[in-house]
Design brief:
- The model has no long low-confidence stretch (mean pLDDT 90).
- The chain is globular.
- Strands 1-4-5 form a three-stranded parallel sheet. It has a two-stranded parallel sheet with strand order 2-3.
- The chain is mainly alpha-helical.
- Strand 4 (94-96), helix 7 (100-108) and strand 5 form a beta-alpha-beta unit.
- 55% of the residues lie in helices and 10% in strands.
- The relative contact order is 0.18.
Length: 161
Amino acid sequence: MIVASDASPIIALSAIGQLSLLSKLYEGILIPQHVYNEIITPISDLPGKIEIQNSNWIKVVSVTNRILVQALEIELDRGEAEAIVLALEQDADLLLVDERRGRLVARRLNLKVVGVIGVLVEAKTKGYIKTLAPLLERLQLGAGFRLSNALVKRVLLEVGE
């Protein structure tokens, strides 16, 4: 399975100590150069910085269609644009992206999209995590993720919590 990712899912999962779920669920992740640079920049203290540098299952791949990246940058930030183009170029089975606009654009381009919540639900379903509720709370409190109460209730109900 080919999986491409934007920075947000990697940062969020790292912030709650669950980045390794990606390697368990998907074997490997492709990220564009800009996403890598966003996370590991020397002035950054973003979660995931060390993990991404030491990972052998996160691969950095340069995108080639710069024209499409520029066109997508009208609506999106560069990391999201490159992640979408990378997913298209690599014929990815899945794109990990959290931002609403990025998800809409990716779906418009017929990409299958999952965000960090979807990753956590899949991990719970496959038995890699026991309970989802504490991770959702940590996402909100520790990673600054904005989740509506209705979404949290729906997701917890979906996984039987």
